[in-house]
Amino acid sequence: FIRVMEKESGLELDWYREYWVNTTHTIDYGINDVVDNDEGKAVLKLQKIGVMPMPLDVVVEMKDGSKKMYNIALRIMRGNKTFQGEIAEDWPWTNASYDLQLDVAKEKIAKISIDPGVKMMDVERSNNEWQNR
Q: ∠ CA(127), CA(59), CA(61), 5° rounding?
């Protein structure tokens, strides 16, 4: 089954099999903060709270109504899925935190969501959204 999934996706999935079959670890990602860097661009600070690593889809909604979509693959996947958005730098799966550099200022952002399509089995979804107030 895993070999078929690897052939179809073109991704390395041994890590997925290992976590899903041999552990009872859970998935939990959250947004820690959004800050502006020295160049006035927003930095989304993400945290892996649960033990099980997963690639992330992140949607940034602007105050003007436009949206930007990002995919953050795991480095152990050795590739990226086909995605209609921006492919971000791989997240080293052993790192508990990750900074996603955005190309807009924090003040222009209305909302940021992790996995807005609810495709990931995140055990605590309350920390998957950030609203700019």
A: 100
**What are the counts of helices (DSSP H) followed by strands (DSSP E) for the chain?**
2, 8
Residue 29 confidence (pLDDT) above 90:
yes
Distance CA 119, CA 14 (A): 20
Handedness of CA 4, 77, 117, 95 (dihedral sign): positive
Largest Cα span, the chain: 47
Please give the Cα distance from 105 to 48 (Å, whole number). Answer: 24
CA 54 to CA 74: how far, in whole Å?
A: 7
Pair 67, 117: CB distance under 8 Å: no
Residues of the chain with pLDDT > 90: what percent? 71
| pLDDT, mean of residues 100-122 | 96
In angstroms, the CA 111 to CA 119 distance is 19
Q: How far apart are CA 84 and CA 102, in angstroms?
A: 17
Q: Is 24 helix (H, G, I), strand (E, B) or coil?
A: coil
Specify the 3-state DSSP secondary structure of 76.
Answer: helix
Global pTM reads 0.87
